[in-house]
Amino acid sequence: MNPRKKRIAIFASGEGSNFEAIAEACRRGEIPAEVVLLVCDRPGAKVMSRARRLSIPAVEVAPAEFPTKEEYEKWVAAKLEEYNIDLICLAGYMRIVGPHLLALYDNRILNIHPSLLPAYKGKDAIRRAFDAGERDYGVTVHFIDASLDGGKIIKQKKIPYSGSDFEELEKMVHEVEHRLFPEAICQVIER
Ligand code: GRF
């Protein structure tokens, strides 16, 4: 067993509540790891202000400024190497990871998705499930593969809800996310 704490990079594009939940769980000692880098692909996203508040190093990068996706991922990979990253957590990262990063971090990239995968892959999963009149919602943490929200499931939690208040449901889902992602990270680290 390597006694060194695992070094996590989080990739995020927006709000960043999962980023913060993971960083705080690490600081409380609930995960034997530390969040040492945020990679944000949407300059100006709210997650950046959370990183500043938590004093976590962050890079903002606009993929459109690179000639190809591979060039973008090579740039990101160099940052990951610079920070000696062991594990990548995708927390609201609105982009499919390409073959370059996948090969470098095989079985070391986790994603969180607000549905009971394989149901409701893709954007607006909670809204689509709600509009379809589901009674069981959920959260899944999984290893990624080359497909959208695909890959081996690490942890999944069902959330029964039969109410009619979408905001209430969304809040419940996010609260579960903030617990499930840290638990899944622990499971992966301790495997
Ligand atoms: C979460 O619902 C996550 O499951 C999905 O994107 C959302 C990100 O929320 N992949 P936040 O940015 O962590 O607040």
Please summarize what this structure is:
The chain is an alpha/beta fold and 191 residues long. Helix content is 37%, strand content 23%.
Report on the structure:
The protein has 191 residues and is α/β, with parallel strands linked by helices. The chain contains 6 helices and 7 strands; from the N terminus they run E-H-E-H-E-H-E-H-E-H-E-E-H. Helix 1 (17-27) crosses helix 6. The radius of gyration is 16 Å and the shape is globular. The chain binds 5-O-phosphono-beta-D-ribofuranosylamine. Residues 12, 14-19, 91-92, 112-114, 177 line the site of 5-O-phosphono-beta-D-ribofuranosylamine.
| Termini separation | 10 Å
Kindly name the structural category: alpha/beta
Radius of gyration: 16 Å
Mean pLDDT: 97
Order of helices and strands: EHEHEHEHEHEEH
Bound molecules: 5-O-phosphono-beta-D-ribofuranosylamine
Report strand %.
15-25%
The largest sheet, given as strand count, sense and whether it forms a barrel, is: 7 strands, mixed
Q: Specify the overall morphology.
A: globular
Summarize the topology.
Layout lengths: L5 E7 L4 H11 L5 E8 L5 H8 L4 E3 L8 H14 L4 E4 L8 H6 L4 E5 L11 H7 L4 E8 L9 E8 L5 H24 L2
Parallel strand pairs: 1-2, 1-4, 2-3, 4-5
Antiparallel strand pairs: 5-6, 6-7
This protein binds 5-O-phosphono-beta-D-ribofuranosylamine (GRF).
The site of 5-O-phosphono-beta-D-ribofuranosylamine has 13 residues, from α1 and β5.
Defining traits:
37% helix, binds 5-O-phosphono-beta-D-ribofuranosylamine, seven-stranded mixed beta sheet, 191 residues, alpha/beta
